[in-house]
Specification:
mainly alpha, MetI-like fold
């Protein structure tokens, strides 16, 4: 079934792209600029994704820690970045921090802003997954005198990972689409490139149709990758049933 759906998706995309090439005479003029924007979007999304995963795990472990200071620090991080606008956070990183002597490149500001923001949301997904692991699993590890780090990384997290995949997939797709905001810190991503090309060539339908297709393809890659990942980790779900 997945193979049929993938084939249909690839065929539909190929048809639309072929139609665009056949119908829109100026495609070759603005497409290179959109592809350059795509490279920037992929760079921001890829680096932000790594930071997003790291922050999610670190904050979730802090939120579930027995240490009060760690729980407090993780809670402050989650509430600040989840309770304020991503756009404002990008402005702070790129425009406000220089007022205090901290100057970040546009790419660094974009990756930090995206990664920290989505990490705050991901922390709650990971925390919920960790808490979903039956308490008996942990108690059995304690009875076997298993060290805490070993209990966490060999017993709890593998089972929690199987639970968190769908939620983290949704956040990853949202992260890809949210890269459109990085133009606020002067990066020329797909959306910014599309706006600029439209101002030059006035081909609104063609330019933004191609832009939409590019975002759609990126999100479908994430969705398909998550499906493969779910199949690989499905064996851990049996331990929770």
């Amino acid at each position: 079934m997945n193979t049929v759906r993938i084939s249909a998706l690839v065929g539909a995309i190929a048809f639309l792209v072929g139609l665009a090439f056949a119908t829109f005479s100026e495609l070759k003029v603005f497409l290179p600029a959109l592809l350059k924007g795509l490279v920037v979007t992929l760079q921001v999304a890829g680096l932000s994704f790594v930071l997003f995963l790291f922050c999610s795990l670190l904050a979730a472990l802090g939120r579930t820690s027995a240490n009060l200071a760690l729980r407090f620090a993780a809670g402050i991080y989650v509430e600040i970045f989840r309770g304020t606008s991503l756009l404002v956070q990008l402005f702070w990183l790129f425009f406000v921090l220089p007022e205090f002597g901290v100057v970040l490149t546009p790419m660094t500001a974009a990756v930090l802003g995206m990664g920290l923001n989505f990490g705050a949301y991901g922390a709650e997904v990971v925390r919920g997954a960790i808490l979903s692991v039956p308490r008996g699993q942990t108690e059995a590890c304690i009875a076997l005198n298993m060290p805490e780090w070993k209990r966490l990384f060999r017993i709890v997290l593998p089972q929690a990972f199987a639970i968190m995949v769908p939620g983290m997939t949704n956040l990853t797709i949202e992260l890809v689409k949210a890269t459109a905001m990085v133009s606020a810190v002067t990066l020329v991503d797909i959306t910014s490139a599309a706006v600029k090309q439209n101002l030059i060539h006035y081909r609104t339908v063609e330019i933004f149709l191609i832009t939409m297709l590019l975002y759609y393809c990126l999100c479908q890659v994430v969705r398909y990758g998550s499906k493969l990942l779910e199949v690989r980790v499905s064996r851990y779900r049996g331990a929770l049933n």
